[in-house]
Structure formats: C-alpha cells, structure tokens
Write a structure and sequence with these properties.
The chain has 235 residues and is an alpha/beta fold. The protein folds into two domains: 162 residues, no CATH class; 34 residues, no CATH class. It is 45% helix and 10% strand. Strand 1 and strand 2 form a beta hairpin. Helix 7 packs across helix 8 and helix 12 packs antiparallel against helix 13.
C-alpha cells in the first residue's frame, strides 16, 4: 500500500542493500526494479522532470548514461578521442596515472546525497549528478552505476537494455524486472544498430592489402582467401 511506501511520508527510505523486503514470516520477497528506456539522453531529462511532479519524486532512482555525458575528468572529458578507452587506461594505470575522481565515486553512492542536494527529496537528472560530482570531486559515471544497486527506477537509453554487451558491462540483469520502453516504435532501428558494424572504404582497402599479403605468401591460405573475396566484393 502507498501508505507504507517512503513516498507517502516524504522521508528518506531505509534501503535494504540486497534490495529485498521481508515478509512477516521471515521469507524474502523480491522487489523488481523498473528499467525505463528512452531513445535519447534528452528524453531522460524530460522524464525526470515529470517524475519530480509526482508523489514518487523521492523514490530511489538512477540514470545510466555514457562517459560523454558524465565524465568530469579535466583531460578525458575535453578530449576529442575515445573517452571510454582513455578512462580504461587511467583506471588500469597504464601511463602511471590514475583517476582520483573514480576513487571518490562512493561519495555520491548514498542515493539521498543527490536527492537532497537542493534541500528537498526529489528526482534528479544527469546535470544534477554531474554538478554534485564536480562539487565532491567524484566520478558521476561510476556513481550512477553504484546507485543502481538500491534504485527502484533506472533510466537509460534503449541500447543499455537491448545490447547484450552493454548489459553485461553495466551489470544489468533484466530477469524478473519491469521494463518500460518509451516510444517503442524506435526499438527496431536501435536493435539493428546494436548488431551492426560500420566500416569505411579505406578500412576495406587496407584489409584487402593485408589479406593479399597473407594469400600471396601462403599464410593460412584457406582462411584468408574467402575473407579477401568478401573485401573485394564489398569494395
């Protein structure tokens, strides 16, 4: 009943880390999360504004988005190259440097540090998350992922739910959860993109040259000859 829900009192709910509620007889009752998928990040901002206007504004939530929107590292965030790769290199310490913001992500892992940032418990959007991350010098990208553990509502773009590789990397398990797809007529295009790969003509020509070398030098001829034929046909 809503009278037993945290939203009815406007107070900060006590979250069970395992995300289960206990019945009176002691048995665990699984509480599903709501995964709300949208086409663009801009639509997530619109939906979070609408959530603010409801009685469920204080319900624990999070927004999953790419590093392009949430990275606050002064070098990575302003780089024109692949931010994902640069972030991974920092986390692995490949060049003897690490990311201090990543190590501070736990500072915003308490959900209501975000929701009470403006003095009231309410839904937030990506800009609020990034702003708090800068204030606390904490990584907004990984903080959002940590918040997913205790969140009742998870907002994200379509591909986070449709692409199996992204689901695995983000530790998203949809079994037994509630999935809502906004403007679902766009799902077909997104599904095609998730299993598609684009190459340029230059890349095809470079691949053909390498395969020519392999075939001409009789290096695994049986494997490389069909691949060369595919490159030639595409070119």
């Amino acid at each position: 009943p809503c009278t037993e829900c945290s939203c009815s009192s406007g107070k900060e709910p006590t979250k069970d880390p395992s995300h289960t509620k206990k019945k009176e007889n002691g048995d665990g009752l699984f509480v599903p999360k709501i995964f709300f998928g949208t086409r663009t990040h801009k639509q997530i901002a619109q939906i979070s504004r609408e959530l603010k206007r409801t009685a469920y504004s204080a319900v624990p939530m999070t927004i999953l988005s790419s590093r392009d929107y949430t990275c606050i590292h002064p070098v990575v965030s302003h780089s024109a190259s692949n931010r994902n790769e640069m972030c991974v290199e920092l986390l692995e310490g490949k060049h003897g440097k690490s990311c201090a913001y990543y190590h501070g992500a736990h500072k915003v892992s308490e959900h209501h540090a975000l929701q009470s940032a403006h003095g009231v418990y309410q839904a937030w959007d990506i800009e609020d998350l990034v702003s708090l991350g800068r204030k606390l010098r904490a990584c907004a990208y990984f903080a959002a992922r940590e918040l997913m553990v205790g969140a009742d509502i998870v907002f994200c773009p379509y591909n986070y739910l449709l692409d199996p590789q992204i689901r695995e990397s983000m530790d998203i398990n949809l079994k037994g959860q509630v999935v809502i797809l906004d403007e679902a007529h766009n799902i077909e295009d997104c599904a095609r993109e998730s299993v598609s790969y684009g190459v340029t003509e230059g890349q095809l020509r470079a691949a053909r040259e390498e395969l020519d070398f392999m075939v001409n030098n009789n290096i695994r001829h049986k494997d490389h000859e069909p691949l060369r034929a595919v490159c030639c046909s595409l070119i």
